[in-house]
Amino acid sequence: MPSLDVVIVNWNAGEKLQCCISSIATTRQESFRINRIVVVDNASSDGSIERLQTEALASVIISNPTNRGFAAACNQGAGGSTADYLLFLNPDVVPEPGSLEVPTAFMQRLENAHIGICGIQLLKSNGEIARSCARFPKTRHLLAMAIGLDRLSPGCFPGAALEAWDHQESRAVDHVIGAFFLVRRSLFVSLGGFDERFFVYLEDLDFSYRAMQSGWSSYYLATVRASHIGGGCSEQVKAARLAYSLRSRILYAYKHLSPMSAIAVLLVTTFVEPVIRLSRAVVRGSFAEIAEVSDGYWRLWKNATPSARR
Fold first, then answer.
1. Phi then psi for 147, rounded to 5 degrees?
2. Distance, CA of 203 to CA of 191 (rounded, Å)
3. What confidence tens digit (pLDDT) does each residue in 37-59 have?
4. CATH number for the domain running over 3-132+167-231
5. Over the stretch 8-30, which tens digit does the pLDDT of each residue have?
6. 88 vs 71: CA distance, rounded Å
7. Is residue 220 classed exposed, middle or buried when 0-12, 13-18 and 19+ CB atoms within 10 A define those classes?
8. Among 169, 154, 176, which residue's Cα sits nearest to residue 88?
């Protein structure tokens, strides 16, 4: 039977982590086996690791003294794995029956040997289907996201997310969200894992892009689902979340777009977008949002990427 290692990165996920682990414990393992669950804790302070109960599962807990970031923690969790597949799972995702069995069996089929990454349908807390797949963003997509045109007129200026597609059928896609990211271990090893320069955000998109460059495909399965509770760890630090997401966007542009396109993304992200965000916050009269945006951009400017500095 194919084997699977589940890697969960935790940072103050609270009770969501236990819900995720408990759901995995009820998974039927008739056509595959879970070798182990690896929980990598990035210096949580909420007691979620101390309260965690994993007696029903073969589990490993890695406790980092500092927050190493999502990409680095995922690589830690995958280290030493001998399983056929790695499932990177967010702690705010609760697998439903078949969530692990069906995609693993799908990947095992001979006709799917070219598929390196698989995701499944994710449900929001209100029961709606999340738009969890994306295209590989080009310059126009990143600029539309920075200026906000993807929200004002998504039909004319789409962002990277496949918002217009209802996600009700299975199909090949450019990218599936990293909240449920099933990947062949051989592929993960061959690509050197996630790029740890992405502290958090877009490390999964970068991996999917590199997999595509190496001849692999990504696939979205709508025949099985999991609940994505949302309101995850990053909600606790909105300014830091903004800074990390912007930094990852710039890094992605410098890594995968032309030099001129990367410079355009850098300039619009660092000089145009903050004006738009602050103006919107002022119109709303939200002093909290003004503070968050200001703090987020100060963090970005203070910790600019080496590529951006050049």
1. -85, -20
2. 12
3. 999 999 999 999 999 988 767 89
4. 3.90.550.10
5. 999 999 999 999 999 999 888 89
6. 10
7. buried
8. 176
